[in-house]
Design brief:
Order of helices and strands: HEEEHEHHHEEHHH
Number of helices: 8
Distance between the termini: 9 Å
Shape: globular
Number of strands: 6
Strand content: 5-15%
Mean pLDDT: 95
Oligomer: single chain
Helix content: 25-40%
Bound molecules: zinc ion
Strand order of the largest sheet: 3-2-1-4-6-5
Structural class: alpha+beta
Largest sheet: 6 strands, antiparallel
């Protein structure tokens, strides 16, 4: 699939799954020029067309400036692609199911079921005030903050962001979207299990085994979600090139 159309469709899938609303974004590294990545201009993800998807360089600048406005938080993407050559897609989300886990002092995200093995070893939330000072608006709005978030991510699949949301990565759009959707599912299940009391989470060993068996299957979910998103699509589903 054409990379720009894939980003447009991923935006709509993530919108249809409640991972992105009017805010948040998804990108993918350019398969031809890996020092660039594709991301939409600033707009609601559910409305993105392939033509809205623009090439950005690893400084977060547009490769061909044409007057389009870019996302303030594009540095999340540029700095993670800079730091991790094996990352080919990124989702940044403010999903309401996840945000409580970014502010709770009592718990963090832990893998609760076999589909969510990739959530082992989720670290403490990224504390932006440590880097941006006490008056921060919580946004990763420059390269320095993007670098700090990328470093915080380390080799984990997701970085929680205190009072804000989370960022997840993948070797493909399908994997990054899968991780974003199932981070949200995990948080909903975890909250239900905490309400029942004393949940037993997957052990690290179980989570690693689950990730290994689930990972090759992410394309199955992606294919379904694309069809589902088409059915509920807002106008102008991105056309074939
Ligand atoms: Zn954000």
């Amino acid at each position: 699939m054409d990379a720009r159309r894939e980003v447009a469709i991923a935006s709509r899938v993530l919108h249809s799954k409640g991972i992105l609303d009017g805010f948040g974004h998804v990108s993918r590294r350019c398969p031809v020029r890996p020092d660039t990545f594709w991301m939409s201009q600033i707009m609601a993800p559910g409305l993105v067309q392939a033509d809205d998807v623009l090439a950005h360089d690893l400084n977060g600048d547009l490769v061909l400036a044409g007057g389009q406005k870019t996302f303030v938080e594009r540095f999340i993407h540029s700095e993670i692609y800079s730091a991790y050559p094996n990352v080919h897609a990124i989702v940044h989300s403010h999903a309401p199911s996840v945000v409580p886990f970014t502010v709770s002092r009592a718990t963090t995200v832990r893998p609760i079921c076999h589909i969510c093995g990739f959530l082992r070893n989720v670290g403490a939330p990224f504390e932006i005030a440590d880097h941006a000072g006490p008056g921060t608006d919580m946004l990763v709005r420059d390269q320095r903050l993007g670098k700090a978030l990328a470093q915080h991510l380390g080799d984990g699949a997701i970085a929680l962001m205190r009072g804000h949301g989370f960022t997840t990565t993948g070797a493909s759009i399908a994997q990054a979207v899968f991780r974003a959707v199932y981070t949200s599912v995990n948080c909903q299940l975890q909250q239900a299990a905490i309400a029942l009391g004393d949940p037993r989470y997957l052990s690290d060993e179980e989570a690693a085994a689950c990730e290994q068996s689930t990972d090759p299957q992410v394309g199955r979910a992606w294919e379904l979600w694309v069809e589902e998103a088409k059915m509920v699509a807002l106008p102008n589903w991105p056309a074939e090139a």
